[in-house]
Design the sequence.
């Protein structure tokens, strides 16, 4: 079923329930809606969350660039919103998404590809695509 955005007045009311940190950000976890796979964590400010809930295309806030970052605008690896949830404290958002391609800038499906083991970090998955190919850069 396609995502249906809330009415503007309902959206305004919902956004007041979010507890943003001192920098005006809230943690956002992206999860593949049908498999439960955790894809990534990023940050959203109110503008990014509003855009995501209005358009159904996931938008984050880049702390390094200090501007909005629409997932896939450079790489083509977009996230379409299926459902968004707010946690009990209001300080984290769970985004159930339909991920096109890989979610991680390393070329992997998920950013969570390293496991803590008794012998150190263990790599769980190889890149599915070369990051230089994703971002049209030279290695």
Sequence:
């Amino acid at each position: 079923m396609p995502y249906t955005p809330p009415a503007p007045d309902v959206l305004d009311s919902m956004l007041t329930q979010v507890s943003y940190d001192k920098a005006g950000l809230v943690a956002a976890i992206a999860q593949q809606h049908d498999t439960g796979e955790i894809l990534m964590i990023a940050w959203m400010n109110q503008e990014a969350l509003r855009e995501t809930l209005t358009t159904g295309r996931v938008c984050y806030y880049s702390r390094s660039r200090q501007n909005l970052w629409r997932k896939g605008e450079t790489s083509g690896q977009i996230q379409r919103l299926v459902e968004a949830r707010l946690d009990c404290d209001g300080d984290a958002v769970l985004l159930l998404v339909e991920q096109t391609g890989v979610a991680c800038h390393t070329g992997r499906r998920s950013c969570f590809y390293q496991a803590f083991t008794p012998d150190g970090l263990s790599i769980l998955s190889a890149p599915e695509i070369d990051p230089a190919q994703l971002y049209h850069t030279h290695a």
